[in-house]
Each structure stands twice: as C-alpha cells, then as structure tokens.
C-alpha cells in the first residue's frame, strides 16, 4: 500500500468521524463548522491526489531516462565492438594476410597511399584518398576494396550518413561482392550512431538472411540480441 493511499484513507476516516459527530447532540456542529470540515477534507484529498500525480510523472520520467540510458549504452557497446573489428581488419591487412595487388604500379600506389592513412587512423584523409582512387580507377580490381575502406573511413571519422550512402551503394552495385556483408555491418553501426535502431535491426536481419554463411552473419546475430 502506497503512502498516498494510506494518507487518503486516514483523511477519509478522520472526516467520517467528524461528520458522524454532527449527528450526536453532545457534539453538534454549526453549519459553518460542518462546511469548514468538508472543505478541509476536499483540500486534503486534492493535495493527496496532486502528490500522487506528481509521483507518477516523476516515475515516468525516471523510466524514460533509464530507457534512454540503456539505448545509449547499447549504441556505445556496438561502436566499441565495430572499432575493435576495424582495428583487427587493419592489422590483418598490414601483416599481408589478404592485401590485394594489381599489376599496374601506379594504380597500386594510388590504393596503398590511402590504405596507409587508414592504418594510421587518419580516417578523413583516407576517405578522401580512396575517393580520389575511385575517380581515377573506377574499373579497378581494387575498386570494391577501395569503396569498402572509404565507407569504413567515413564511419570512423563520424560521417555516418556518408558511410551509409557509400556502403549501401557498394552492396546495391554488386550484392555478391565479398565485402557486401561486412559493408552492411558498417551500415548498421552507422545507423545506430544516428539513433535509427529500426534501420539497424533491418540491416542486421538482411545480413543474416542474405549472407548466412559469413562471419558477418554471426556478428549480426549477436548484435541483434543487443538491440532487442
């Protein structure tokens, strides 16, 4: 039983006793006294009702604040996980695991230059460098990699709308591209940063459905659990 309910019951009980006294000759009240007793009771009830409403509003505000905090924490966790993935991918490339190569030395150098910036965490410069590479070599065998890292660089430099546009373009141009599933992970991370949780869920679900055999699908499943 709440404090407000207890107070209301006590007020009603006290008023009932007072009003009951009106009926006994030994405690007969004048009309003015009776009216004052009724007005006092009304004021007590209004005060208790107002306090109850204020308590409800405060509770609602607290719940909303907690929900916002949980959503923010989920977004931060998603951001940290993606940054770890990004760092891991960069380290793997730096070790020479799957670094793509082409026969044209100038073309290769034009790609390696922004990749070096990316590895050095100079993401704005890397995004611009990959963009310049794609303008000069739009049909390069490295174009897909360049678009992926351009989008990743845009994300890392907090240009989330630009990252979404670039990486969605990569997937739309070639849904079977080896980087498509990873690109959509970055899209989902960008959508979370923009507080588009419904969009992020839709993107992660698309990864699970369209690319079920990829490691990105496993990552998408775990991130969907965080957004539930």
UniProtKB/TrEMBL annotation:
Residues 87-107 are annotated as: Disordered. Its main location: periplasm. The gene is ybgF. Keywords: Cell cycle, Cell division, Periplasm, Signal. It comes from the Bacteria. Residues 92-107 have a biased composition (Polar residues). The keyword Transferase does not apply. This is Cell division coordinator CpoB.
């Amino acid at each position: 039983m709440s404090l407000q309910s207890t107070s209301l019951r006590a007020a009603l009980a006290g008023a009932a006793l007072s009003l009951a006294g009106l009926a006994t000759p030994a405690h007969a009240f004048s009309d003015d006294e009776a009216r004052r007793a009724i007005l006092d009771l009304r004021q007590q009830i209004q005060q208790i009702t107002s306090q109850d409403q204020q308590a409800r509003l405060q509770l609602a505000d607290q719940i909303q604040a907690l929900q916002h905090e949980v959503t923010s924490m989920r977004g931060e966790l998603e951001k940290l996980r993606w940054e770890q993935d990004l760092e891991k991918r960069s380290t793997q490339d730096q070790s020479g695991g799957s670094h793509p190569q082409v026969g044209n030395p100038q073309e290769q150098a034009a790609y390696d230059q922004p990749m070096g910036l990316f590895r050095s965490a100079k993401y704005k410069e890397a995004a611009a460098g990959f963009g310049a590479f794609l303008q000069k070599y739009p049909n390069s065998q490295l174009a897909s990699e360049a678009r992926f890292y351009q989008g990743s660089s845009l994300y890392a430099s907090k240009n989330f709308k630009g990252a979404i546009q670039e990486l969605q373009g990569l997937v739309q141009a070639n849904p079977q591209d080896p980087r498509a599933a990873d690109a959509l992970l970055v899209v989902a991370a960008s959508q979370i940063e923009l507080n588009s949780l419904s969009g992020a869920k839709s993107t992660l679900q698309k990864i699970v459905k369209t690319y079920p055999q990829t490691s990105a699908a496993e990552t998408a499943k775990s991130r969907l659990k965080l957004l539930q």
